[in-house]
Amino acid sequence: MAGRCDLCGKGPGFGHRVSHSHRLTNRRWNANIQRKRMTINGVTKPVRVCTQCLRTQVKQATR
Predict the structure, then answer these.
(1) Is residue 1 in a domain?
(2) What is the maximal distance between C-alpha atoms in the chain?
């Protein structure tokens, strides 16, 4: 299970694995989901966040 980001909603992407003979089989790209404790609206709770949202949170915190 890939899960979903609690902030942006990003989930798995789907497509085809292409072999050398160009046969197509189904595959999925899982989002890079990390479990972090964050303070949201004054409440600290564990959330599942993708790494892009985690980077954005760090960048906004250092402003």
Answers:
(1) no
(2) 55
Residue labelled with tokens 């906004």: 60
CATH of the domain at 53: 2.30.170.40
What is the residue whose two structure tokens read 């989002």? 31
Say how many Å lie between the first and final Cα of the chain, rounded: 35
The position carrying tokens 């564990």 is: 46
d(CA 46, CA 24): 39
Q: Which domain holds residue 31?
A: 13-61
Read off the pLDDT of residues 28-40 as tens digits, 9 standing for 90 and up. Answer: 999 999 999 998 8
Q: What is the pTM of this model?
A: 0.77
